[in-house]
Amino acid sequence: MASATEKDPHGGLDFAWRVHGALDSWTGKVDTKASITLAIESAILGFVLSLSKKGERLAGLDGASDVAYHVGVGCLVAAVLFALLVVMPQLKRRQAKREWRKGMIYFGHLRHWKPADLAKQLKAKQAYEEQLAEQLVAMSKIAWKKHARLQWSVGFLIPGAAFLLFAILKS
Questions:
Q1: How far apart are CA 42 and CA 150, in angstroms?
Q2: Closest Cα to residue 105, out of 90, 117, 122, 120?
Q3: Element (H, E) at 20
Q4: Which of 70, 83, 109, 136 could staple 38 via S-S, CB 3.0–4.6 A?
């Protein structure tokens, strides 16, 4: 029976790079979804605010319509904020500046290297697996946060739209 090293002489590096690619893809897809969601939320919010001007349909609401309007706008603003948090780049500038010598995968680290020094480090093949493992964990945390924030955004969008629809229909 062949040992794990004989089956995969790269010690799982090929698999790790495939996971890295998948994480990159998932992050890009959630950014795209959040951008679309943000556009929809912004359009709804703009439409509602235009209907809220003096003399328009949502100006001067009272009772349940007024409460529904304010709850709906509040939910929509929260939805927009969560969508913005998804698309906002997560660079961790200070940390990347402090720890750049430890990394050769993240562009925030790579930008500090001198090409000749990086070439030497790459030839030395020091700690690739550990760096890749750290990068996978970091990317996973970012992807998870982005997906959770998009979920919250849509979670606020749906009731917000429902409350606003109620306010419009009751006005």
A1: 15
A2: 122
A3: helix 13-50
A4: 83
Does this model's pTM top 0.90? My answer is no
Lookup result for tokens 């990347």: 96
Interatomic CA distance for residues 128 and 133, integer angstroms: 8
Task: Give the pLDDT of residue 84.
Answer: 97
Ranges of residues in the chain with a pLDDT under 50 are: 1-5
Burial class (CB in 10 A: 0-12, 13-18, 19+), 73: buried
pLDDT for the residue numbered 125 = 67
Query: In the prediction, which pLDDT does 152 show?
Result: 98
Helix H, strand E, coil C: the string for 48-90 is HHHCCCCCCCCCCCCHHHHHHHHHHHHHHHHHHHHHHHHHCCC
Per-residue confidence (pLDDT) for residue 28, from 0 to 100 = 95
Are 122 and 5 in contact, with CB atoms under 8 Å apart?
no
Q: Which helix (H) or strand (E) is 95 found in, with range?
A: helix 93-99
| First-last CA distance in the chain | 76
- Round to whole Å and give the CA distance between 24 and 63: 49
Residue type, 36: I
Find the radius of gyration of the CA atoms of the chain: 24
Core vs surface per residue 138-150: b (16+ CB within 10 A) or e: bbeebbeebbebb
Distance CA 154, CA 76 (A): 9
